């Protein structure tokens, strides 16, 4: 492992020494590609499967999963215990939490699993502390709460983002709009839709040659960087929404609070005094992008207490049927829908109809 770390360190120092201009762009792209490959080896070593971690992976329950990430002693465990009523050991010294502590809250009818992860330290992406396991669990979450101390937020925020990005997590970003297709012959074909400031054919070729790819079609639909291209080639990047929680706001003035409220993706809270939790939960609901669908048995009133919760990218009637039970989709004849996704109340729809939040659905099976 140390050899990989040494290689990473030498590449990073070389990148720091290299001046950035058009002549060195290809070389820097090559170094970035090598760095990405070494990082991937750190996450998944080439050998056989490693031993299991001590109780790190937690079974996925509920409709969504939210992970608390942050440095030690910023109030992650306090926040979990006040939100979910689960006891996660709290003390005034660092590294109190040693493994993942799960909790569950019910909000707007959806069950949301909260995971209190151990503190991250600098160098976590290189395997320091429990960093590798912590970030591996963070990769499975649908939303990340980055808990920061309000008295020293920005330095910490940059460090944690750097650690997570080194592990292939991209916070609050969209996947790059780059079309990449390998082929058997024909060399590298680069199509550019808009003028590029960083990538040209030579840079792209040098990055691809590092991955031993010599035949491919690439379409750049926006001004892309070499990092974006590497993300697309690696293909194991995870794009997660993230909310920055600035904890301990009981220690600052109102004027400072007004300034903090301007920062995007930010919610100031106090876990100890339970301040501003409603704002936090509302923002969490927005970022999770969940859609609630109510079921209606024939001849009865809709069941408004326990909705079926779908993700906003998978809201077709077919997804709804699969969530209820796998066999329903086979016996499906048509569905009756009440709500904002249809013109008439009720309306007969097929499998491909897309549902909106708080629609009511009655499914009619084949006889």
From TrEMBL:
Residues 289-365 form the TGS domain. It comes from the Eukaryota. The keyword Nucleotide-binding applies. The lineage of its organism: Eukaryota, Metazoa, Ecdysozoa, Arthropoda, Hexapoda. NCBIfam families: small_GTP. This is GTP-binding protein 128up. It comes from Nicrophorus vespilloides. Residues 64-289 form the OBG-type G domain. Coiled coil: none annotated. SUPFAM superfamilies: P-loop containing nucleoside triphosphate hydrolases (SSF52540), TGS-like (SSF81271). Keywords: GTP-binding, Nucleotide-binding.
């Amino acid at each position: 492992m140390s050899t990989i770390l040494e290689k990473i360190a030498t590449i990073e120092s070389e990148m720091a020494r290299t001046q950035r201009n058009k002549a060195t762009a290809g070389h820097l792209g090559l170094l970035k590609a090598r760095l990405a490959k070494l990082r991937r080896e750190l996450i998944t070593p080439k050998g056989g499967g490693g031993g299991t971690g001590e109780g790190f992976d937690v079974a996925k329950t509920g409709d969504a999963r939210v992970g608390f990430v942050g440095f030690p002693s910023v109030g992650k465990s306090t926040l979990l215990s006040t939100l979910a009523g689960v006891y996660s050991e709290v003390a005034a010294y660092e590294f109190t939490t040693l493994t993942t502590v799960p909790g569950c809250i019910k909000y707007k009818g959806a069950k949301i699993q909260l995971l209190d992860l151990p503190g991250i330290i600098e160098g976590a992406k290189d395997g320091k502390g429990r960093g590798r396991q912590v970030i591996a669990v963070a990769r499975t979450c649908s939303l990340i709460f980055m808990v920061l101390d309000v008295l020293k937020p920005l330095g910490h925020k940059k460090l944690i983002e750097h650690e997570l990005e080194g592990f292939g997590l991209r916070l609050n970003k969209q996947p790059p709009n780059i079309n990449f297709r390998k082929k058997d012959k024909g060399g590298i074909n680069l199509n550019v839709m808009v003028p590029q400031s960083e990538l040209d054919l030579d840079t792209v070729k040098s990055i691809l040659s590092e991955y031993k790819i010599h035949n491919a079609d690439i379409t750049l639909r926006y001004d892309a960087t070499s990092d974006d291209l590497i993300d697309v080639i690696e293909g194991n990047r995870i794009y997660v929404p993230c909310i920055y929680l600035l904890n301990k706001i009981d220690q600052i003035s109102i004027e400072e609070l007004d300034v903090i409220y301007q920062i995007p993706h930010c919610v100031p809270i106090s876990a100890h005094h339970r301040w501003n939790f409603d704002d936090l939960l509302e923002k969490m609901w927005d970022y999770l992008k969940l859609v609630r669908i109510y079921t209606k048995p024939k001849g009865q009133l809709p069941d408004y207490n326990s909705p079926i919760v779908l993700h906003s990218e998978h809201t077709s009637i077919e997804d709804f049927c699969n969530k209820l039970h796998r066999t329903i989709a086979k016996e499906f004849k048509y569905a009756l829908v009440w709500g904002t996704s249809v013109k008439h109340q009720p309306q007969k729809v097929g499998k491909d109809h897309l549902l909106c939040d708080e629609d009511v659905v009655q499914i009619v099976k084949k006889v």
